[in-house]
What does this fold into?
Amino acid sequence: MKDIQKVMRLDFLTAKPSAMPVFVFVVLLCFGMSLFFAPLLCAYIIFGAMVFVIPLQGIADKNGFNKLYGMIPVRRKNITRARFLYIFLVHFITEIIEIILALISINLKLYRLLPNQDGEMLQMIEDSFNDNHLTFTIIIGMFGFFCFCFSYMEMMGQIFGRENEMKILTISISVFVGLIVGFLQLSEHGIIPIFLLPSMPSSISGKIILAVSGNVLNFIICTVFGEITANKLSKREL
Amino acid sequence: MENILEIKNLNKSYEDFALKDISFSLPKGYIMGFVGQNGSGKTTTIRSILNMAKIDSGKISVFGLDSVTDTIAIKERLGVVFDSLYLAEHLNIKQIEQQLKPFYKDWDSKEFFSRAKEFDLPEKKKIGDFSKGMKMKLMITIALSHKAELIILDEPTSGLDPVARDELLDILAEYIEDENRGVLFSTHITADVERIADYVTILHDGKVWYTGEKDELTEKYAVIKGAEKDIPQKLKEKLIGFHAYRNGLRH
It folds into this structure.
């Protein structure tokens, strides 16, 4: 585990110089806007997290980070595993930041300082401040979606090569859309029973449990993808 | 004499190339030149020592430890200089130091920065903008900062200008003053071997052609230059190689 921590630190320090200013800018922009217009704008901070992942993949490939195990005391598999945990951690920390900032935004209710207090627009803003359920669902949903996508792309990129990334992405999206359309068609014609999404729990504790479960599920997915990739790559000689 | 590196009957085959029964050893306190033509197997042997290539058979011991099972313990005490850095080239040496420090128990930051200063490595310049010579020096700085007892260099002098080559060889000569250390460097520049190596291993077509002390090699073999007709028959029988030049009398 220590090995993995060290490699994650190496990855973070590699991405940090170029990513940090962009991330801080996105945080300030989204948080500033969320204070006055809608707390759910904090969910867009997740786009800032991307700058810690996407450039890193390019830098790591260009500089042959996967060969680092020949130089420094670290196992090859741990270099791969660390990348997936790094992706999870970057998204998870961003999600926590989003939740904290959204809570601050909700509690401050600074939209009350805006002019034209009786306007229709202000009513919409007020509604968004009252719909906390939507805010946190979007934050957790976007975290889950991006975390899954990036770890999936990392797995495919490392196993099949970055040059095939777009091809793999297109195939994966096509398969996913095909399955959804097929599923909907089959349910519409009564071939399979109509599947209804379970409704969100109404209690706060229920929502917290659901959010934590989403995070744990993402952690498991990242770990499994990391393990699959590490095992595949260890059979190949660099 | 205690060996710092020992390779016994190493075999490794690829589709179009194979290392056949490679055996040699490097005693503590010495520099070994690892010589051979391009494609003779030098890099594959080094990759096997570093556990980057999976060997088919044989045994590699570094500091008396097994290169496969004890690879982490070995790399704690080993410095590597490749032709490529394998580090983030947009970072400066300060940031690189921060990255590498946690990997080594014996890392000495003071040593890192004093060596970097001694080697004139600029602190704020991106390492990607370093010259080849500076990159070599950075790799050696890293090795010295974690007190590496053995440095393995893969063709460190190829592509370096004569001044940088000289500097590098001086650094290695200074490094080996501590008798508990060792250096293995692969090259096809025989002048470098002549200058600093104590031992030589020559690979040819995946096999060890010679391994032993450099002085023994220079005593046993010599280079004769001149026209072919001037070489007596008795001497011709002892020739192990012959090279005719186009600009000579014949070709």
